[in-house]
Protein: Glycosyltransferase involved in cell wall bisynthesis
Amino acid sequence: MLNDVLDSVKSQHFVNWECIIVDDGSTDQSEKVIQDYIKKDNRYKYLKRTTLPKGASHCRNIGLNQAKGDFCIFLDSDDLLLDFCLASRMRIANSHPDHDFWIFPMLLEHKNGQREPLEIPKRKSYLSDFLSYQIHWQTMCTFWKTEFVKSLSGFDPLLPRLNDPEIHIRAMLRPKVKYLVMNRMLPDSVFRYALEKKDKKEFAQAYLSSLILFIPSVAQMLTESNKFGYKRLLRGYLKDYFINHSFFNRRGVNLKLLLISSSNRVLFPSEFMKMVMTYLFFSKFGPFSNKAKKSIEKSLVE
Structure:
């Protein structure tokens, strides 16, 4: 898969690029593969993460700090760029030089290799959507002005999950930020989500530890931006977590998440108590039934 993403960069019609690859501690043949590319094309650069924490966010920041270009895209090892991607994005960025970032549609690749466009809907407020766990695009869909994303200090390295919605929320809350969502353009990248294999328990644990940091952090941003009422939108993350992932984690830490949400005004006291009682009752019976899921969803209704 690493070869695929590197080849997709090399195939670009726009040739004035650099590709910075940051190794997060791989134990396979990744370094050898990358060095072979570097020997043939000096536009590839190879860096190793030598400090903690481990994870995509820290590696992205390492690459960002070394970036020399005016614009940047963040790619995971299983993402792909179509050959016209950079040329198309550069054309749009140069046509709107006063903007800070631009969003482009992508293709979703299924396990059988078939691809379908994932349309980005037109919305009144993408900020509200991201706050309520309606995520319309993935990492490589965003074309950042390098100086702008550096001014954000990049990604939050402490979040094992939710780093993409977090940086977009932070960007959209920046005073006088300007960005464009290019809904009508052809998809120019490929997200191979269907090919990923994750341990569900490990994912749930990372999701929970991220939410414990994410909710108070975003709530504080909203306070500083005088958007107090927007905090309640974060219940969308709670809804997804409790319905789909909470049964992989201990009840004590799940209750801690609810308490944090209440103390940050994501849940009102009455909602907090209702959700606690609903969760404690249904969690006694193992993975949630449809009835349990509906009860939890009702407790977190927006």
In short: Residues 200-224 form the longest helix (25 residues). The chain has twelve helices and ten strands.
